[in-house]
Amino acid sequence: MTTRINPAAEGHRLATRLARQLGDDIRNARVANGLSQSAVGAAAGMSHTQISRIERAEVASLTIDHVCSAGLAVGLKLAARLYPDGDAVRDAGQLRLLERFRATLPPGTGWGTEVPLPIPGDRRAWDAVIRLDGRRAGCEAETRLADVQALERRLALKARDGDVDVLILIVADTTHNRVVLEQQREALRGLLPLDGRDVRRALREGRLPHAGGLIVV
């Protein structure tokens, strides 16, 4: 059973909430400055009806341009950024990578995907969790390596919070990834000291590795 959010549904709820908040901000600033909706609309290049609908969060497709223009007309400036909040959706390549890794596991290995971290309200989830020899391994799948330092920070936080005994990073076997690992493998050594041969050896012996490891599949 999937545990990740539905981005489309959650995005719509978030957009609706933000539209209401922004509409309230614009209305409160307009009233505080003694401005009519017509005056604000004229300054922002919109009709008073549009301003009214923005204030009531009734614009079906509210644009950043609308909000910025209306905000500046009442003395407000929009500032917006996106912040980390959970994991990105998995693509087909990640799913295939996980299945390739799963095929290397010994018979009887417990397997679960999209396993949530045990923190209420936390939207992060392990790509997979395997259970073997009474222990649990949190597994993350990377189809294309990029910012290795950012990856290390993300994995370290997940390992800290994820209620697992060991961490396994599964990397797709591509020319690009092998070049990146040749250049930057040591940046991950503190968190993932074991290489693929050590991880494979432990799995063949019916146990999880004794420490975190990186395996190319």
Provide a compact summary of the structure.
The chain has eight helices and five strands. The protein is α/β, with parallel strands linked by helices and 217 residues long.
How does this model look, in words?
The chain has eight helices and five strands. It is an alpha/beta fold and 217 residues long. The protein has a five-stranded mixed β-sheet, sandwiched between helices. A hairpin with an 8-residue loop joins β1 and β2 (125-132). α1 runs parallel beside α4, α2 (37-44) crosses α3 and α2 (37-44) crosses α4 (64-73). It is elongated, with a radius of gyration of 25 Å. The model has no long low-confidence stretch (mean pLDDT 92).
SSE order and pairing:
Blueprint: H1 7-32, H2 37-44, H3 48-55, H4 64-73, H5 92-102, E1 110-116, E2 125-132, E3 135-142, H6 148-161, E4 166-171, H7 175-184, H8 196-204, E5 213-216
Parallel strand pairs: 3-4, 4-5
Antiparallel strand pairs: 1-2, 2-3
Care to count the β-strands?
Answer: 5
Terminal CA distance: 25 Å
Number of helices: 8
The low-confidence runs, each spanning 5 or more residues with pLDDT under 50, are: none
Average pLDDT metric:
92
